[in-house]
Write a structure and sequence with these properties.
The chain has one domain (2-51). 25% of the residues lie in helices and 20% in strands. It contains 3 helices and 4 strands. It has helices at 32-38, 45-51, 66-69, and strands spanning 2-4, 10-12, 18-21, 27-30. The strands form 2 sheets. Strands 1-2 form a two-stranded antiparallel sheet. β1 (2-4) and β2 form a beta hairpin. The radius of gyration is 15 Å and the shape is flat.
Length: 71
């Protein structure tokens, strides 16, 4: 996928990359490795409330690595 973003930059992605839409509506392409390391899935308020409790599997939620997000 290739497109020009709102700032006039060409965004080019490879198979497996993520198309990310920000709250302001801007879009960018993130490499899969970076996206999966930084971003976490968001759910509904009910899901967020439930996720703060321990799960049966013991899996804990990842938190974003903010320093990598600026790279």
């Amino acid at each position: 996928m290739v497109f020009v973003d709102a700032l006039g930059r060409e965004q080019r992605g490879q198979a497996g990359d993520y198309l990310v839409e920000a709250a302001d509506g801007s879009r960018s392409i993130q490499r899969r490795q970076i996206f999966e390391d930084i971003y976490v899935a968001m759910g509904t308020v009910a899901e967020e409330s439930a996720s703060s409790r321990p799960t049966a599997s013991g899996v804990k939620r990842r938190t974003p690595n903010r320093s990598a997000a600026t790279a």
